[in-house]
Specification:
about 325 residues, Rossmann fold, 6-stranded mixed β-sheet, 11 helices, elongated
């Protein structure tokens, strides 16, 4: 037997095997996990954005809802880590502390971490895609300031209440609240008479209702998120009062309230959840391919106000 020919054949076979292995690795279907913390229109739209990019790129998308429980968030991340997904796109319940360890462990095992909706207090996530929460609050605050200057012009005391979600996400809620309040606090007569934390609609109806009962001459309620805004509108309806509501987030129900003849919801500032979700998966795919991605991306929001019905109608057509 010709040993030289045998060695050459063995080398050729090895190279073919290596090439096949590399080709298989290159064509391996990527698996990306998308993790949200509640089931509302915003988070549903985020997942739709993720799915649109995943489908377009032949990526397997796994999704989970942590149901506002930090223990479940940790469990979900650990499960995806054990499953060896390629990337995790996640919004956190405690980005300053309790959320860090699980995603750090995933990152240490080579899983790409993409943060969306809020920022983890660590530098290892590949990218963060979110809105500027202070700017979102300011958008509705500017609309409220205009309402105060026109509709409530000349009133000596203007009573304002805020329904936030500090019990759920303190930093994010505080930024939205401060952004709003800073736009109106310097106006003559403006006084904050009530504040409560209620991230979900049912609880917000009760909390806002309690504030209305304690302040029957209330002028304005500001909801810092979807639940707080919708709950405030429903509480005003229940009370039969003439109280203006300003809020955050935009969905079909919000648009309906803006177009309603009851004149309760005056303005709301929304994020672009579909784009946030889409960009999160897009960046995960790029990072897995070794392509550069931006470390921080701020997705602009938009304010819809009752005084501009044409803009509301145009946006409604896109839903």
């Amino acid at each position: 037997m010709n040993l030289s020919r045998l060695a050459t054949s063995s080398l050729a076979a090895s190279l073919l095997l290596l090439g096949a292995t590399q080709a298989a690795a290159q064509t391996k279907k990527l698996t990306i996990a998308g993790v949200v913390f509640q089931e509302d229109q915003f988070m549903k739209s985020v997942l739709l954005g993720m799915k649109s990019v995943a489908d377009k790129n032949n990526v397997e998308l796994l999704t989970a809802n942590t149901a506002n429980q930090i223990t479940k968030e940790v469990e979900v991340v650990n499960t995806y880590t054990a499953r060896k997904v390629d990337a995790i796109c996640i919004t956190y319940l405690d980005p300053a502390a309790a959320s860090i360890a699980a995603v750090k462990a995933a990152n240490d095992k080579g899983i790409k971490i993409i943060s969306f909706n809020n920022t983890l207090a660590a530098d290892f996530p590949v990218s963060t895609v979110q809105s500027n929460n202070t700017s979102l609050g300011a958008g509705s605050g500017k609309a409220a300031a205009e309402y105060i200057k026109t509709v409530l012009k000349g009133k000596k005391t203007i009573k304002v209440a805020i329904i936030n979600y500090k019990a759920q996400l303190p930093p994010e809620s505080n930024m939205r609240q401060d952004g709003f309040w800073n736009e109106i606090k310097g106006l003559p007569g403006v006084t904050l008479v009530g504040e409560a934390s209620a991230p979900e609609t049912d609880n917000a109806v009760k909390k806002a209702g309690d504030i209305i009962t304690a302040n029957p001459d209330l002028d304005i309620i500001y909801g810092c998120n979807t639940g707080g805004t919708l709950g405030s509108v429903l509480a005003v309806k229940n009370a039969g009062k003439k109280i203006a509501v300003f809020g955050i987030d935009i969905d079909k129900q919000m648009v309906g309230f803006l177009q309603s003849k009851d004149n309760i919801l005056q303005a709301t500032t929304g994020q672009d959840p579909f784009k946030i979700g889409a960009m999160s998966v897009e960046f995960a795919i790029k990072a897995l391919k070794g392509q550069p991605v931006e470390k921080m991306v701020i997705v602009p929001g938009m304010t819809l106000t009752r005084t501009n019905p044409a803009a509301i109608k145009t946006f409604a057509a896109t839903l």
